[in-house]
Fold these 4 entries.
Entry 1:
Amino acid sequence: MDIIGNLFIAGLIIIAGLLAQLIFRRFRIPEVLLLILFGAVISAAGFTGDLDRGGAALLFLITFSLIYVVFYGALPISIRAIFSTLKFASLSSLANFIAITAVVGLLAAPFVAGWTDAFIIGALFCVLDSSIINSMLEHVRIGKKAEAQIQTESAIIDTIVIVGVLSLVNFSTMSAPEILQSLASYLFLSFGIGMTAAIVWAFVIRKVRDYSSAPIATMAVLVILYAFAEYARANGVITVFSFAIVFGNISLLTRIFYKEQAEFLSAIDPRTKRFFQDISFLIRSFLFVYLGILLDLSQWRYLLIGFAFFIVAYFLRSFLGRLVRNRDITERETHLLDALCAKGLTTTVMIAIVQGSAVFTNIIIGGIFSSVLLSSAMVFFIQKGKFTSASDIILKAAAKMHSAALSRRDEGQGGIARETAEGAAKRP
């Protein structure tokens, strides 16, 4: 397709993204599903027949999207909220990552070429998409602690998944000691670079925040930071994540260390927030349409397998959530946290980075599609009081079956006792 055709398609995608937002606000139909379907339609119509998945422009967009997804997902997280929910969010994230990656990975092994792809599939079913979750939270009544927990868990699990998948891709030929050594250097060096850069840039942005280009400069810093971290053999994802946490909480840190400058600034003013929302809109629109373009309906069986894998991941997360439940969160909020399990941007970006087979891609697309659809439905029915959670329903059903079994046993023992007593009474 020539440049004019590409521009035409790009304009259509942006308009489709706006329409999807309007439909979501009016009818609560998830915009992700609409954009994926739009991508599938324009692909079937032949408008994207020469799409080069390995082109330099596409790889740049994917890498930029990865940087932005990590940054935008971690930016709203409050350090105070992290400390209040860190225990439960961290335990839940680690437990879910280990359990879901292992179980879904084992189930996926017969369908893909090797164990690496299988466990990457398992890891991608752990993802919690913060942008979709935040859009759902706008229409859900939920407490501050519950909201902080799901946001913190989403940021932690997404970072673990990204680092884990990239490690599987990059370290698949390394020994276990080499991997552990590399990951240790990743962590220390990455957090050091990210936190230092955030503090320095917060002071710089204070001087230039009145310029209209200041938010764009922040995005440029993110790209430079990611590239520098990778060049320094650190991890760009962890570096951007730590940068976002410190940068988003710089006003709190300033009040702690410089009490005389209690009114220092919040690094994220309303104009900057608006800019990041606009960038998020563009990235979401293009990536979800791109996901629809990759959709291969001739591989519909693997879409159904993706649906089945999501159900497995949902049940595992639901049961594990009960084991590490925060007692400060109500039962209804626990059910809502179970239901907020949609996959989206992070998973889409990782599909493009891994460049797996058609089977691999369609399994993941099936998981994304079903997760968004079922998550939206579960949130709706929980709000109406017509649904709780899978683990709650199963445990209650198991309790009823156990109670019924005990009743039948007691009735049987009572009948034997009565028959014995009657027999004894009839004896002369």
Entry 2:
Amino acid sequence: MTGWSDGGKKKAKLPPKYAASRSRKVAAGHADEPVCMYFGSKATHCRASDYSDGSFLDAMSSWLSRFLGFHTTPHSMDTILPFVFLGNDHAASDLTGLRKAGITHVCNVAAQCDIHFPNDFHYLHLRLLDNPTQQLAKHLQAASEFIHRAKHADGRVLVHCVAGVSRSACVVVAYLLEHCMMPLVQAYAYVKRKRPVMCPSTAFRMQLALYEVAFPSLAMPWCAHFWSVQIALFESSSVLSSHDPDWDFYELNMYRQAKLGRRR
């Protein structure tokens, strides 16, 4: 990071420690003034309050993916299966693009995204927030069934949220778990290969891990009911033995430690 400019102040080179601290404050919503981030000669402006429900990180992930040169563009959607597409709200608002892709159904899983073309497509709108307390797991079955019905109707589904990196990505992974019989570690890696900008939050990844071993009964957020699924059941999770860094985080490691303790 070359520097920050807050509220129109002159750009200045800041110490890395300050810049990182400022990034965390803005991402957490503690700083609301307009912020301009500079990467080389490129800049972007944002205000945390413009994203009141946690989608700030979604939007920043989308911008960073474009800056870093990923193939996904603001208006793109990626083909996951011949009848399943994963994208963002820009793609969902592009009528020409939707028709060109043969989309017949749209699964909107973002609370702040509107239904753009109610007379043109079949919709499922799950008003989910991108924050750690969101009970994502209890909605995954409904979304999976919607996708499955579209398949049997010879339709095509766009699953989207704001940026197409967290909520909607988890829905597509859950569909592969439930209807394609993939283990979570395989389903997650498959979707990430198809859409490299995919980056679900730690909370949502943990809920996916619980969902793999407990669906369809899981309905509680992991953060409030951490031990609600018995360790003996969770031992069957495909991600416990994964070396993918996406599955290396504190909450899941607690289960790994418990699993090792049971074997001693």
Entry 3:
Amino acid sequence: MLRVIRRVWMPLLIAAVLAVGGFAVLRVRGIFGADSFASSADNNAKDAVPYNPKTLVYEVFGEPGAMADVNYFNEDAQPTRVDAVQLPWSFKIVSILPSLSGNIVAQGNGDTIGCRIIVNGEVKVERVSNEHNAYIYCLVKSA
């Protein structure tokens, strides 16, 4: 008899601990009302109404005939580089996202360069720099 008890006491103890633990989990879930699982096979959820489209326009301007290297955020908010564009330069983004972030950086070979970010026809930021190989940036955090 002692030999049988030595062989089965550990599996019996594990089974008892699992049973007590499972019972405790069920009781705690019942106390806090977690035993009712909300499930719905009904697909009556309404589609989200799209936001009004936003128009964001980047503009870089400077001396006539000047060239510039331009970096900006595209419609997917990814940095994009355009080298040696002739000024004035502009880029238009139309998006239905609830918010846009506009950022443009430019360096020209002239002595004057400026940038402007226009959102839905309203100038949000405009800057001008007057120096040799002028450098400029414009930033709109939330459009």
Entry 4:
Amino acid sequence: METQQLVQPYDLSLHHAGRLKMYCEGGRDVTEDLVDHIAFGNEEFHVAKLGDVREENGEYQALVYWLGLDEDEASWEPVRSLYEDIPIVFRRWVHQHEDKEQVNKMAAELDKTLGRSL
């Protein structure tokens, strides 16, 4: 692994990273709420799951169920935004729903727009 000093002279050095371990210091009163705050923060909503897909005014949208919100608070979000924000979740959802014609059309259109395959 190559590292760089954060202060001058900003030297680069090579290190073997095979024995690195994650730092963990016990006894710090880490609560579940603190872990959730670190993982999710307070700034955004997080996707619980993706539902149906539709085409609205020439743009594909997916029904997004939000973590911590009721199902009736789900919203339709542009698939391109979802692909940019949660690419792994989005790709997994597309592959799990390849049997649905509308999802295949949406994926083909998104492939064309992005210029690459999902």
